[in-house]
Write a structure and sequence with these properties.
311 residues, alpha/beta, Rossmann fold, Histone, subunit A, six-stranded parallel sheet, 10% strand, globular
Length: 311
């Protein structure tokens, strides 16, 4: 296909029904799925990431799943390069790329390019981790608010990964993440882009879905999955993979830091906070078509087909 061929984005908060809808779209239309998820890239992290099971992947393969070991890092820049390569390959086969997921930074980076930020510094990150163990992440959030109030305002006081990164950027670059991001040169996305956002129209529906899904994860062996990861000598809570929502809480439970009930409560709360941050990102999306999670899939597929007919 020429560069005039479109690309679909299907975005949404966690537990909004993205995967089920994507599978139906791929069955009805000439679409191939590319995962846009910073946790699904990791092997051996299946239950806690809600990774599609093997029987689903057999009928609707997802590209950019299981491409890294949990001991490795994976960046938004790497995702952009690999996603553009996959899009080109799908177009070359006369098909339409359907990018599906909830990692909003990845979507933004793919569509707009990436700010020139310093690379990760493991010693600095370890130092920030030690500070957080002594004083707590809310204290580091307060530190961030003094040097980069705009970033701090976007982040929850316990959003360890993003607080750490913002402090790291300031320490390495001498400028705040907000300032550096504003200097970003927008890179034009080389294909027509059609964006859909799926979410329940009633917030309490999403809250109930999140709670139900976490209990289902526990019932299907999530604690055992984390226990197996925890036995790996090279894997600890400093690794980006273990910052995925739910994994850190179960890890602390296995360390004896929480009892079971506290672990469940904290994991569900953390997931709800994550969904809230995702929705904040999504509300800033321009020219996106919103879908209700309860809307029949057949109607959604018909809307996508109509968009394709324009090409």
């Amino acid at each position: 296909m020429a560069k005039s061929a479109p690309v679909f984005f299907l975005m949404g908060p966690t537990a909004s029904g993205k995967t089920a809808l994507a599978v139906e779209i791929a069955a009805a239309l000439p679409c191939d799925i590319i995962s846009v998820d910073s946790a699904l890239v990791y092997r051996d992290m299946n239950i806690g990431t809600a990774k599609p099971p093997a029987e689903i992947l057999a009928i609707a393969p997802h590209r950019l799943i299981d491409i890294r070991d949990p001991e490795q890092c994976y960046s938004a820049a790497e995702f952009r390069n690999e996603a553009l390569s996959q899009i080109k390959a799908i177009h070359s086969q006369g098909r339409i790329p359907l990018l599906v997921g909830g990692s909003m930074l990845y979507f933004r980076t793919l569509a707009e390019g990436l700010a020139d930020l310093p690379a990760a510094d493991q010693r600095l990150r370890a130092s920030l981790e030690r500070d957080a163990r002594r004083a707590g992440w809310p204290a580091l959030h307060a530190r961030l608010a003094r040097i980069d109030p705009e970033s701090a305002a976007r982040l929850h006081p316990n959003d360890a990964q993003r607080i750490q990164r913002a402090l790291e950027v300031y320490a390495l670059a001498g400028e705040s993440l907000t300032c550096l991001t504003r200097k970003q040169v927008t890179e034009q996305f080389p294909y027509p882009l059609i964006k859909f956002i799926i979410a329940p129209s009633v917030r309490d529906v999403l809250r109930r879905r999140i709670e139900l899904r976490f209990h289902e994860m526990l019932a299907t062996g999530f604690v055992d999955e984390v226990a197996a990861l925890r036995r790996r000598a090279a894997l600890d809570l400093s690794k980006p993979s273990m910052r995925a929502v739910g994994y850190r809480q179960v890890w602390h439970y296995l360390d004896g830091g929480y009892n079971y009930a506290t672990m469940v409560e904290r994991a569900i709360i953390a997931t709800r906070h994550y969904a809230k941050r995702q929705l904040t990102w999504l509300r800033r999306e321009r020219e996106a078509h919103w879908l209700d999670s309860n809307e029949p899939h057949v109607r959604v597929v018909a809307r996508l087909k109509q968009k394709l007919d324009d090409y």
